[in-house]
């Protein structure tokens, strides 16, 4: 890593808490493993995902969709880490946006990060839409978040109900609030 990149990373880490740093490191590692050229992100959040996918990787672009216009820290983080010029941010409903771009986006992304609506029905909607895009790697965030067990989130249940009859391989990780990485069983 070049010294300017190291300095950017140190400044970026100052904007995050411990879980945020852990999430950034995990998503960076996953990005390096699967080497997508383009990433679709459902739920822009705090800019951690977009930053992890683009910083010191070969990813050309992250397209991120979120209903919320003014996200706390998003613009600041992608600017600090130096990836702002490779982020395309769309404000709107994830499923509507995907459906409006399905022809252009089908077979166009190497990885998708699903971190939008965490309710059972919301996760199912997002999974249904991204499945139609034929993306080989699907990452679900907050898989082990305590809100799942308190009944406020429905990520593991939606994951199970959606993928139970699909031909996929899944690995789950406890880093940050947990991730499920789903791989389609085909070579792209």
Explained architecture:
The protein has 188 residues and is of the alpha/beta class. The protein has a single domain (3-184), classed as Vaccinia Virus protein VP39 (Rossmann fold), CATH 3.40.50. The protein is built from nine helices and seven strands; from the N terminus they run ααβαβαβααβαβααββ. It has helices spanning 3-13, 18-34, 48-54, 74-80, 94-100, 102-105, 120-131, 146-149, 155-163, and strands at residues 38-42, 61-66, 87-91, 111-114, 137-141, 168-173, 179-184. Strands 3-2-1-4-5-7-6 form a seven-stranded mixed β-sheet, with helices on both faces. Helix 7 (120-131) packs parallel to helix 9 (155-163). The longest helix has 17 residues, at 18-34. The two termini are 30 Å apart.
Number of domains: 1
CATH class membership: Alpha Beta
What proportion strand? Answer: 15-25%
Residues in helix, %: 40-55%
Strand order of the main beta sheet, please? 3-2-1-4-5-7-6
Give the CATH topology.
Answer: Rossmann fold
By CATH, the superfamily comes out as Vaccinia Virus protein VP39
Largest sheet, strands/sense/barrel: 7 strands, mixed
Order of helices and strands: HHEHEHEHHEHEHHEE
Shape field: globular
Assembly of the depicted chains? single chain
Report how far apart the termini are.
30 Å
Ranges where pLDDT stays below 50 over 5 or more residues in a row are none
**Mind telling me the C-alpha Rg?**
16 Å
Instruction: Say how many strands there are.
Output: 7
Report the total helices: 9
Q: Name the structural class.
A: alpha/beta
Give the second-level CATH assignment, the architecture: 3-Layer(aba) Sandwich
Mean of the pLDDT scores? 95
């Amino acid at each position: 890593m070049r010294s300017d990149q190291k300095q950017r990373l140190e400044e970026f880490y100052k904007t995050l808490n411990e879980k945020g740093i852990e999430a950034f490191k995990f998503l960076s590692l996953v990005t390096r493993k699967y080497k997508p050229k383009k990433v679709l992100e459902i739920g822009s959040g705090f800019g951690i995902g977009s930053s992890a996918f683009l910083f010191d990787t070969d990813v050309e672009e992250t397209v991120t969709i979120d209903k919320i216009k003014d996200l706390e820290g998003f613009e600041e983080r992608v600017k600090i880490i130096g990836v702002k010029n490779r982020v395309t941010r769309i404000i709107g409903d994830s499923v509507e946006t995907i459906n409006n771009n399905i022809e252009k986006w089908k077979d166009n992304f190497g990885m998708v990060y699903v971190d939008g609506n965490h309710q059972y029905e919301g996760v199912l909607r997002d999974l249904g839409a991204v499945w139609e895009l034929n993306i080989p790697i699907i990452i679900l965030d907050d898989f082990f978040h305590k809100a799942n067990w308190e009944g406020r989130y429905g990520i593991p249940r939606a994951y199970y109900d959606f993928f139970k009859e699909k031909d996929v391989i899944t690995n789950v990780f406890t880093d940050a609030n947990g991730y499920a990485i789903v791989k389609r069983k085909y070579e792209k």
